[in-house]
Amino acid sequence: MAANATTNPSQLLPLELVDKCIGSRIHIVMKSDKEIVGTLLGFDDFVNMVLEDVTEFEITPEGRRITKLDQILLNGNNITMVSQMYYFFLHRFLVYVEFSY
What we know:
Number of helices: 2
Structural class: mainly beta
Strand order of the largest sheet: 4-3-2-1-5
Order of helices and strands: HHEEEEEEE
CATH class: Mainly Beta
Largest sheet: 5 strands, antiparallel
Radius of gyration: 15 Å
Shape: globular
Distance between the termini: 40 Å
CATH topology: SH3 type barrels
């Protein structure tokens, strides 16, 4: 299958897709009750990520907590999903912003 991926330029491997997000705002859903939005500066083969201008959204027993951070190193073992920010959607917070054209 790897040979097929190299002959078909329209097919991207997972790390290639993450690489295309460098410099972009991304939305990350964690295994815990946290979601993170930030600008991807870099990553390694284990998908550990360096992010800047980060907002962390967390659900606690007291309610929702939002934390702003300048720069973080995120452990890739705890990531469930990564998506590029074309829209703003927080999985557990049910916040939507729709764009109309």
